Amino acid sequence: MQSDPDATSILSVISSKNFQKSLIHSYHETTLNIDRLPLIQEALELHNNEYYAGSICLLYGQFEGMLTDSMEKAGYIIKKGNKIEAVASNKKGKKDNLSGLVPKLKHAIKMEDELQSFYKKIEKHELVAGDEKQTIPKTRNGILHGSDMSFNTEKRSAQLILWLYSIILQVRVLGI
Q1: Burial of 33 (0-12, 13-18, 19+ CB in 10 A)
Q2: Which of 17, 63, 65, 169 has its CA 20 to 30 A from that of 31?
Q3: How far apart are CA 105 and CA 108, in angstroms?
Q4: C-alpha to C-alpha distance for 124 and 163, rounded to whole angstroms
Q5: Number of domains in the chain
Q6: Could you count the other beta carbons within 10 Å of the beta carbon of residue 56?
Q7: How confident is the model over 4-53, as pLDDT tens digits?
C-alpha cells in the first residue's frame, strides 16, 4: 500500500500553528485556571523545538492540574490548602485524601455522570498500543519519578498534547 504524498501526518498537524492556536483559543473558552496557559504554551514551544523531554514533563503536570480543576468544578473534590479531598466520605465516614493522579481518577470514576466515561478512558488508555503497562497514569509515574528515561519522543509528546486538548474540549462542552 502506497502512502499519499499529500496526506498530512497527525504529528505535523499537532505541531501546526492552526492546531495550537485552536487549543489555546479553546482553553480561553473554559473556566480552567488561566495561570496554566503560559505553561501550556511553553510545552507547545518545547514540542515544536523538539525538546520532547521538557514538553512531556510540563504536559503531565498541566494534564493532572487540569483534571484536578475539572474535578473541583464538577464538585467531585475539595481543595483545602495543599490537600485535595473527596467530596463523598469513605466507608469509615472520613473524606479520602486524594494525592496523585490515580486516586483522583478512581474517585471520579465512582461518580455516575457524563464525565465518568471520560475519566475511565484516561485511566485505561494505552499510550503504547497493546501494552497495558503504558497507560497515562503509569507512564506519568515512571517519568516524573525518574524510573523511565526513554520517554522523550515526539509521539509521546504529541499524544499528551492531544489528551490535553481533549480535556479542554470536554470541560468546554460540559460547561464546567
Answers
A1: middle
A2: 17
A3: 5
A4: 13
A5: 1
A6: 26
A7: 555 568 889 999 999 999 999 999 999 899 999 999 999 999 999 999 99
Rounded to a whole number of angstroms, the distance between the first and last alpha carbons of the chain is 45
* Alpha-carbon gap, residue 128 to 173, rounded angstroms: 28
Q: What is the pTM of this model?
A: 0.80
Query: Is 62 contained in some domain?
Result: yes
- How many C-beta neighbours within 10 Å does residue 134 have? 16
Indicate whether 56 belongs to any domain: yes
Q: What's the rounded Cα separation, in Å, for the pair 160 and 163?
A: 5
Domain of residue 88, residue span: 10-174
User: Scanning the structure block, which residue is given the C-alpha cell 484536578?
Assistant: 68
- Cα(103)–Cα(137) distance, integer angstroms: 10
Residue 5 inside a domain? The answer is no
155 within some domain: yes
Please report, for residues 19, 47, 69, the alpha-carbon distance to residue 10 in angstroms, rounded to integers and kept in the order given. 11, 14, 28
